């Protein structure tokens, strides 16, 4: 049964946004949302014939706000705004980003602070429920005055103009898509065009989607690190609870707890403390020993980013806005700085997580540091190259992620004849974070694949496995999609197969099934 998300004046949950944007959940406007919109529309209607200027109702936009628009041209003003602002260019933005943007704008309408008629909000709900997604290019938003071009393409589709992808994924004219879905184009009234483009909706949607992915990937990173510690014959003693209580960062404590849980019951780890295999190294390399500190810092960054997203979800962003006491006031709440900063911050955290993961992978491949494993984990080193080039791939991704970690939000290019003279570039920060999240997932997949191969070479494979129960479960899962060690094979499909296990959550589910608690 398809999930339905109720749109009310109260904040959406992050899970609701992900459900609609990524998984195609339906939406419905609650009666209280319709009432809130009716109330604020009466305020706008009262201004339509007012001779005094009201921004967005009877004036031009941006640097053209000094122009008073005649009454008979005010609906044309709204149509012209959308047509002129639907000016994006470049590679088409992912469907889930556009759906998240539309949902966030719909919710802002539902707060009753924008002055749009309920039928406009119903039109947005209709597009979402019909699976109609406006075609939006990656360039066009400066992250200030709203995600202007992306939001304008969505408003254009509601008007029955422009290009969209239908539910089947084909690109068609918006008029045809609306007609096929039984939807009527909307003729925008005073202020409505402006109300549809003045928000941080796109960058917020990208933040929420990335946060959901990073929660999964940060837990996956702990799992990968534990497998590397076991596979490299490291010590889990450094993850003891009392040691981490000496530096009680919540993220660090959570990461260390995950590592302890995954390593619990490992026969390979136990062998490093006793008998002829007793551990002789005083301490492991940083990439193993300091995993909780690095992973924990990334978690703290994500906690902060999610707190910013929560504030943004509780916001009604428009300019001008209809206040609770019926005033129509200009403001600067559309500025994307708060969201842009944390999008950039998360790209830094993702890059560092990938960097430490790649270093763990590399340790497996060097016989001087792998403690008894074949060079590059090759079956017959020299004849075979093993995972040599898998590390190259990880290194290349990490290098790209370091470039993506350069902040977008420190840049600003003035626009609109210097009226909009400081912008956030938050949309650009969101797009590069999405690429960084994808990179982290691939780097972790390479570490997991490499650690599983190393462990098979240590103990002979699943049949004679000496791993902890959680790691044994993950190794078993990986072996359902990738063969065990042997002569060189086409490696790219194996990396992709493990990436898909991490992406779907199956990797974590396998580990969690073997534990008394879930990795978080």
Automatic annotation (TrEMBL):
Pfam families: Lyase_aromatic. InterPro entries: Aromatic_Lyase, Fumarase/histidase_N, HutH, L-Aspartase-like, Phe/His_NH3-lyase_AS. GO terms for biological process: L-histidine catabolic process to glutamate and formamide; L-histidine catabolic process to glutamate and formate. It catalyses: L-histidine = trans-urocanate + NH4(+). The keyword Lyase applies. Its EC number is 4.3.1.3. Pathway: Amino-acid degradation; L-histidine degradation into L-glutamate; N-formimidoyl-L-glutamate from L-histidine: step 1/3. It is found in: Cytoplasm. Keywords: Histidine metabolism, Lyase. The keyword Lyase applies. GO terms for cellular component: cytoplasm. One of its GO terms (molecular function) is histidine ammonia-lyase activity. Belongs to the PAL/histidase family. This is Histidine ammonia-lyase. The lineage of its organism: Bacteria, Bacillati, Actinomycetota, Actinomycetes, Micrococcales.
């Amino acid at each position: 049964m398809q999930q339905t998300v109720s749109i009310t004046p109260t904040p959406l949950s992050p899970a609701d946004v992900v459900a609609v944007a990524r998984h195609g959940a339906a939406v419905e406007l609650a009666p209280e949302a319709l009432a809130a919109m009716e109330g604020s529309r009466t305020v706008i209607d009262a201004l339509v014939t007012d001779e005094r200027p009201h921004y967005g109702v009877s004036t031009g936009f941006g640097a053209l706000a000094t122009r008073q628009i005649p009454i008979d041209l005010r609906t044309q003003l709204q149509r012209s705004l959308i047509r002129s602002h639907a000016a994006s260019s470049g590679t088409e933005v992912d469907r889930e980003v556009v759906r998240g943007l539309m949902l966030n704008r719909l919710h802002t309408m539902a707060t009753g602070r924008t002055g749009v008629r309920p039928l406009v909000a119903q039109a947005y709900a209709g597009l979402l429920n019909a699976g109609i997604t406006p075609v939006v290019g990656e360039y066009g938003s400066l992250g200030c005055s709203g995600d202007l071009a992306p939001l304008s393409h969505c408003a254009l589709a509601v008007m029955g103009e422009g290009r969209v992808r239908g539910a089947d994924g084909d690109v068609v004219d918006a008029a045809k898509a609306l007609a096929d879905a039984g939807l009527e184009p909307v003729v925008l009234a005073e202020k409505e065009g402006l109300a549809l483009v003045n928000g941080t909706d796109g960058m917020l949607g990208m933040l929420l989607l990335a946060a959901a992915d990073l929660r999964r990937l940060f837990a996956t990173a702990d799992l990968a690190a534990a497998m590397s510690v076991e596979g490299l014959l490291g010590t889990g003693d450094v993850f003891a609870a009392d040691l981490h209580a000496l530096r009680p960062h919540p993220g660090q404590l959570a990461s260390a707890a995950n590592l302890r849980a995954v390593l619990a019951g490992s026969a390979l780890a136990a062998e490093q403390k006793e008998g002829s295999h007793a551990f002789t190294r005083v301490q492991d390399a940083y990439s193993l020993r300091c995993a909780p500190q690095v992973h924990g810092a990334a978690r703290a960054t994500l906690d902060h980013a999610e707190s910013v997203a929560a504030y943004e979800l509780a916001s009604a962003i428009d300019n001008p806005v209809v206040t609770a006491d019926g005033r129509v006031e200009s403001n600067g709440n559309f500025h994307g700085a708060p969201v842009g900063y944390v999008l950039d911050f998360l790209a830094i955290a993702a890059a560092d997580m990938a960097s430490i993961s790649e270093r763990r992978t590399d340790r497996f491949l060097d016989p001087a540091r792998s403690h008894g494993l074949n060079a590059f984990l090759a079956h017959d080193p020299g004849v075979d190259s093993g995972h040599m080039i898998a590390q190259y791939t990880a290194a290349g991704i990490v290098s790209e992620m370091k470039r993506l970690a350069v902040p977008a939000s420190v840049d600003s290019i003035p626009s609109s004849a210097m009226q909009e003279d400081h912008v956030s570039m938050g949309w650009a920060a969101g797009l590069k974070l999405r690429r960084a999240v994808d990179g982290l997932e691939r780097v972790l997949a390479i570490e997991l694949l490499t650690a599983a191969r190393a462990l098979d070479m240590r103990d002979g494979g699943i049949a004679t496995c000496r791993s902890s129960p959680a790691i044994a479960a993950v190794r078993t899962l990986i072996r359902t999609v990738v063969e065990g060690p042997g002569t060189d094979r086409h490696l790219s499909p194996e990396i992709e197969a493990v990436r898909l296990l991490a992406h779907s959550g199956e990797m974590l589910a396998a580990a969690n099934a073997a534990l008394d608690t879930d990795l978080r």
